[in-house]
Write a structure and sequence with these properties.
Number of strands: 44
Strand order of the largest sheet: 1-2-3-9-10-11-12-19-16-15-14
Radius of gyration: 28 Å
Distance between the termini: 86 Å
Helix content: 25-40%
Shape: globular
Length: about 850
């Protein structure tokens, strides 16, 4: 019989085949809810239990695993999901397999190898609504009179490297586990019958080997044998392995239809023999030989990546502390944010933002930099910076985003927003300060030219080229940077090209000062005897000082920094996003203020005035907001800003509570020394316990970073009308897009460097905590070289400015740092500290009194 999709199939056969239902249209296994006792017996002792009355919604176990029940899944807007990654590389690795798992039976989906958009293996789930159920890897169990799909489970448990599903019925308790080991590039699937008779399984895999996400109706080649099968062709294949003889049938899509006829669709199906336990491994070969990238820096050998991170990052409050629960919640979230930071860095995609694969230039210079500095892995950070420098345009700036895994297009110099050029220089300066590694400056990588890569040039020449480009892109007659295509807020691209040439972003001006000062300090720290480095440091510092002076002269009006300055031909400066603004409808903006404080660009009195204005106009129940009100939505015609005025979407920057900006607000609070508000700000960014902390917050997944907190409005019109109600705490709040953000890496870094106050600076360790008085007795675990050190804080009488630092009871000599706003921290000799470490139960004591 010809295929129903072939041209010679008759119309009657085609109609009959089309009407034959697939198994995906049939009933799902009706899993029942589990009691609290049953949940504990499956997952272990439960802590931090979230309830709705007597119903358990979620909980954690002692090893940090998060347990979610079907009741919680039914209560959330965004369904629970998790991204798994294989391998333990700390730099790009083309062999890494990435898989997105969903609580509702998505055991592996959007499986990719290497590049997470190009190296596709299994297809992507495309809807939250349960309408398209066949994507990725799905499992049916033989139950009752036929096959039933495993969909919503009784409960789901997730750890950074695995997911488990439990399905309970009157006569069956089934466990499914999906794993991503860090010591090999294979994904795992294991099914166990914990109660009941052995069962047959039908496993469906929707192939995406053609890089079309399974959309083309083309059945893949299958070469099966007793213990596995190869799917696809050499160079574009999926390899499956199972216990010998455990699979009765290997087929294409016909098994999924009641008539058994193939539609020529890209499915592979496996039918197992009845069993109480069965396992499947998935490996892939989709990366061409000339695109293979072997990682040069790895974490610990073996399968201990996540255990090492958990052991090296931790917090514990003193018993009886009023903040003990909040500290425990922060401790809970640390490995999850580390997980999300690794996904953003090395497998860049998210649960909502599922396309990707490249690095945003400003993103990679924040999130991965923060992650690697927190872990103390400057060896990996060096490799990242060389990749960033390799993407630099020959003219001196960087593209908005670029690929970091082959094949990498190298022709043409792509444009970017006006702030992007500063982020690599800031990251370079931070690396030099942290590592003292001046050898990076002589490492040679090419630029990207119009016709391809140029001849290699030293990293120092790359920095010089960037500084030259920065000078070329200032407002005529001023050191202030021209706005160009926009700044960090991606919703504010100028609608009028003339506006782009005459507009100055105050936030970009603060970044210019901060980046150039940091670069200059890093050059002097890492290359004190290199004349060309000293010359570049001098030039960078001069431009920074000129910019700071012009910023105060031009952009500070009536005691407040304007968001933007519009330079008119007659020399007049029109201040936008300022109380005098008559153009945009916006009065206050948080970004330039917080960055100016963090960069020491305001006096103490000016800093306090700006922070007070934030509290009055920009601080909502969920944190700091970008503006005092939403930009006007015009539904088409745009007058000042493009996306802010034209996008129908309410969320992320347009929804105004952008978590990354809120974390930068916390950074400013740390610099100023407001310990109470600093700690509260960090708690607001933590999804663990969020509904207790923020009554307006709707239930949400507790193990993912949220890029925003979004008012639950139907559309932009309602958001504009009811925004004052939101600020008053009378509007429900939903969590925004998850995982894909530089925010998790930034969170980890700011927690370690600004709250705990521990910063590596060459051969010194800076100790500069900012802690509320009731966190006296706080302990933290941090990585220090090859050791994990326990840090104990005694907070008595004041909240910053340590009076004593000791290692294992022996006082360490200290040198005082500087801070214009509060009592400053100190630094200690890092070499001497490391030499005194015993490697076992080392304790660093920090007293603030």
């Amino acid at each position: 019989m010809p295929s129903p999709l072939s041209p010679d199939a008759d119309e009657e056969d085609e109609d009959a085949t089309a009407q034959s239902p697939s198994l995906f249209t049939g009933p799902a296994l009706p899993a029942r809810d589990l009691t609290a006792e049953e949940l504990a017996s499956l997952a272990g002792d439960l802590t931090d239990v979230e309830r709705d009355g007597e119903v358990v919604l979620s909980a954690f176990t002692e090893d940090g695993t998060h347990l979610v029940t079907a009741a919680k899944e039914r209560a959330v807007l965004r369904p629970h999901g998790h991204i798994l990654r294989t391998g333990n590389a700390l730099v790009p690795d083309s062999g890494t397999l990435t898989s997105t798992c969903w609580m509702t039976g998505g055991f592996h989906s959007q499986v990719t190898q290497g590049h997470v958009s190009r190296g596709t293996v299994l297809s992507t789930r495309r809807t939250y609504l349960g309408l398209l159920r066949a994507h990725g890897l799905r499992v049916f169990v033989e139950h009752g009179t036929g096959w039933q799909l495993l969909d919503l489970p009784s409960a789901w448990a997730v750890s950074p490297g695995s997911c488990r599903w439990w399905y309970a019925t009157a006569d069956l308790l089934l466990e499914v586990a999906a794993t991503a080991p860090t010591d090999t590039h294979e994904l795992g699937l294991a099914v166990r019958v914990l109660h009941g008779e052995p069962r047959r399984l039908l496993v469906s895999l929707h192939s995406a080997l053609g890089e079309d996400d399974g959309q083309a109706p083309a059945a893949p080649a299958i070469d099966g044998h007793a213990s596995g099968a190869s799917v696809g062709e050499p160079g574009a294949s999926l390899r499956l392995a199972w216990p010998t003889g455990s699979v009765e049938q290997v087929d294409r899509d016909g098994t999924l239809f009641s008539d058994g006829a193939s539609r020529g669709l890209p499915f592979v199906t496996l039918v197992t023999a009845p069993a109480s336990a069965w396992g499947l491994t998935l490996a892939a070969d989709v990366v061409p030989d000339d695109a293979v990238v072997e990682p040069s820096v790895r974490a610990a050998a073996g399968d201990g990546l996540w255990e090492g991170i958990r052991a090296g990052l931790g917090l514990e409050a003193r018993q009886g502390s009023a903040r003990a629960q909040e500290v425990a919640h922060l401790d809970r979230v640390l490995p999850w944010f580390a997980h999300d930071a690794f996904v953003h860095y090395l497998s860049p995609r998210g649960l909502e933002q599922f396309t990707g694969g490249g690095w945003g230039t400003r993103d990679v210079c924040q999130g991965p930099v923060g992650l690697l500095l927190t872990l103390g892995r400057t060896d990996a950070l060096r490799e990242v910076l060389l990749l960033v420098l390799r993407a630099q345009n020959e003219r001196g700036d960087w593209p908005q985003a670029f690929d970091f895994l082959p094949p990498i297009p190298r022709n043409g110099q792509a444009g970017s927003h006006g702030d992007v050029v500063f982020w690599p220089l800031l990251a370079l300066g931070e690396y030099l300060l942290a590592s003292g590694d001046g050898s990076l400056l002589t490492a040679e990588v090419p630029f990207v030219g119009d016709d391809g890569p140029t001849q290699p040039a030293p990293a120092l020449a790359h920095a010089r080229r960037a500084l030259t480009r920065i000078r070329e892109c200032t407002v005529p007659g001023s050191p202030l940077p021209a706005y160009g295509h926009g700044d960090w807020n991606d919703s504010l691209q100028p609608a009028d090209p003339q506006l782009a040439a005459r507009l100055v972003s105050t936030w970009t001006a603060t970044l210019q000062v901060h980046a150039l000062r940091t670069l200059a300090a890093g050059l002097r720290e890492a290359a004190p005897t290199l004349a060309v480095a000293a010359e570049l440091a001098d030039d960078a510092e001069r431009l920074a000082e000129d910019t700071a002076g012009a910023m105060h002269e031009v952009l500070l009006a009536d005691g407040l920094l304007a968001g933007y300055g519009l330079m008119h031909d007659d020399g007049r400066v029109e201040h936008l996003v300022h109380p005098t603004d008559e153009r945009t409808g916006l009065t206050y903006g948080v970004l330039p203020w917080i960055h100016a404080i963090s960069a020491d660009l305001l006096s103490p009195e000016q800093a306090d005035h700006h922070l007070a204005t934030i509290r009055e106009h920009l601080l909502g129940p969920d944190g700091a907001r970008l503006f005092d009100k939403p930009a006007a939505y015009r539904g088409g015609p745009m007058e000042v800003f493009q996306r802010a005025e034209g996008s129908t979407f309410w969320g992320r920057e347009i929804g105004l509570m952008y978590t990354h900006a809120h974390l930068r607000y916390a950074e400013a609070l740390a610099r100023r020394g407001d310990a109470e508000r600093l700690f509260e700000a960090f708690c607001l960014a933590n999804p663990v316990g969020i509904t207790e902390r923020v009554p307006q917050a709707r239930p949400r997944q507790a193990t993912t970073y949220y890029s925003s907190s979004d008012g639950a409005f139907a559309d932009r019109y309602e958001a504009a009308e009811r925004y004052p109600e939101l600020m008053a705490g009378n509007v429900a709040l939903e969590g925004g897009w998850r995982v894909y953000s530089s925010g998790p890496g930034l969170f980890l870094r700011l927690l370690q460097e600004c709250v705990l106050g521990l910063r590596r600076r060459g051969d010194r360790l800076e100790v500069d905590p900012v802690l509320p008085l009731d966190l006296d007795g706080l302990t933290a675990r941090i990585p220090l070289g090859d050791n994990v050190v326990r840090v104990e804080y005694a907070v008595r009488g004041r909240t910053s400015g340590p009076s004593r630092v000791a290692l294992n009871g022996t006082d360490l000599p200290t040198s005082e740092l500087t801070n214009p706003y509060r009592p400053a921290g100190v630094s200690v000799d890092l070499t001497a500290l490391r030499a005194a470490l015993t490697g076992t139960d080392d304790v660093l004591t920090v007293e603030i009194s």
